[in-house]
């Protein structure tokens, strides 16, 4: 399978080899770029136009083709209600959303230009003694599958693990479909989203609760048994692969950078972050890293399940504590 990455640039960090995305594919730069530089180096300095759709010389009513002007690539056939947001507009939106001298650490396109992404870094904060960098990622698309989306994606600096949980009391993302008055929608988003600040405050509160909650290895094993599921019909090879996944997850629990949180729900969440951010699948395709990046943007269902299980542990331990005291 061919790489699904089309073009991108990224800021290289030689201190941590895991930071390099997709084994160095794309253009490496030493410093984060402003929006004009990022637009050019990411290869996103192109526009898309809506063209009438014809079959046997007859125009098809209600539909049009999204065509990239630079090479004539047809990105999708969409309804005539579809509104295009150009790449340059996406950068303008993110500049306005964050304010100040916005700098971008990576940007590019996936799936032949059908999906684009830009990642802007915000000032780092500390959560439980760890440096965490909030990022705002803006993703856009030129086909029916992808909406316009702004996502807060915090990254733990020491190991480049993403901490993108679905929190109860803070919005992680904003999205809208490519229909209606796009200018008005983007303006409303600028006014309403204090996305990163609200999310990071709630993340700090949640992290403290998780760090105070003790969990045993047996409890963690019970959780991951429900994540990596096998059944009696599975082949020996598949059963072994599943057991290897469980063992590798438990190895992540022993990572030196989370030693101070070992035996807690927060340590388990950190191990899950390491596992789902960095570990390659047993049978890795050429494009698995691109898909891994898409999971970071859209959320990883297995990561969210482990996080939810750890949040449930908080409630369980509190209930047990109340019963014990009575």
Can you describe this structure?
The protein is α+β, with helices and mostly antiparallel strands and 326 residues long. The protein folds into 2 domains: 5-46 and 83-195, no CATH class; 212-325. The protein has 9 helices and 14 strands. The protein has helices at residues 35-41, 87-98, 182-192, 195-211, 217-225, 236-252, 265-278, 288-298, 301-325, and strands at 5-11, 27-29, 48-55, 58-68, 74-79, 104-110, 115-121, 125-127, 130-133, 135-141, 148-152, 155-156, 161-162, 173-176. The strands form 3 sheets. It has a 7-stranded mixed beta sheet with strand order 2-1-6-7-10-11-14, with helices on both faces. A 4-stranded antiparallel beta sheet has the order 8-9-12-13. The chain has a 3-stranded antiparallel beta sheet with strand order 3-4-5, with no helix packed on it. A hairpin with a 6-residue loop joins strand 10 and strand 11. The chain is globular and about 65 Å long. It starts with a strand and ends with a helix. Residues 15-19 and 321-326 have low confidence and may be disordered.
